[in-house]
Amino acid sequence: MAVKWRGSTELQLQADLEMAYDQDGCTTILTYMGPYAECIARRPKRGQTIKGYPGAIQRVTVSRMTMERGKIVVTLRDDTEIEGTGDDKPSKPRFELIWVEIDKPLETHPIFNEEPKFGTETMANEAKIRTNTGNGDLDARLQKIFGSKEYVTTNGGLIQLMKSMTPYERAAVYEYMSVVTWKDFVQGFFEKWDAGIESYRLYAPVARKTTEHLVQPVPERPGKIEKPVGFSKLPKRGNGKDFKWIKTTDQFSWTGRYGRGERIEEWTGSDEIDEDLYAK
Fold it and tell me: Is the pTM here over 0.90, yes or no?
């Protein structure tokens, strides 16, 4: 049985205690200060223990601070295995579902992309501007902007272009739209944009799984398209469809004595995911 080191009333334990955990055990570093002669006379021996701290003493260093004062640095190591085995026995996972706020560009809002307000018009629809309406002044202004007799893009592309236009140029585009009876979609966007609304708040679900481990696992690199693991029920979008999920967090930290650790995994839901940009 290891002998306990009792120290001395003249040796004061300092507040800068260090404890580090790994999958094999715990390392503790204690610092004592007192008279140098007492540090030399009362320094502990390897193999001894110190009440209140795990493990046995592995290393001792004594140094002189001043002519009279000294310092003892003691390193203890505890390699005790949990429950007599080195096997990982993770706890029952804790599952959480939370909603987080995300700011998204105004042009990605569903009213401009899912046909609920502007009939069949969406950001992806073709936008064609002809600069030969028969109105000489208007045609000249349009040709100065678009540089050809016919300019073809999408509603989304036209909106990006119009963001950088002068009020005079934008007025010409609006006038053209009134001639061909097509402007509600684009003008609806700019009514909000010109009022200072450049983004909107979206609330996305985050599925979080927390598990305690006795042996350190290797966290996976996030960024994969993956449905949350272990959840019996997940929220759905407003239209009743499933969210698309990406694993966004996988972290591990030591939280207790003898190397017990905690792993946190998170998946964030989204209405749509570009599968060309993320791995499966």
Answer: no
**All residues at 6 or more sequence positions from 170 whose CB lies less than 8 Å from its CB, including other chains:** 162, 190
Q: Give the chain's end-to-end CA distance (angstroms, integer).
A: 55
Smallest CA-to-CA distance from 21 within 241, 212, 189 is with 212
Indicate the residue among 137, 167, 193 that finishes a domain: 193
Q: By C-alpha distance, which of 147, 135, 144 is closest to 177?
A: 135
Residue at 254: amino acid letter: W
* Residue ranges making up the domain that contains 34: 12-80
| Non-local CB neighbours of 100 within 8 Å, separated by 6+ positions | 203, 204, 206, 268
Tell me the per-residue pLDDT of 211-238, one tens digit each, with 9 for 90 and over: 887 777 788 889 999 999 889 899 998 8
Can you tell me the distance from the alpha carbon of 210 to that of 256, in angstroms, rounded to the nearest whole number? 15
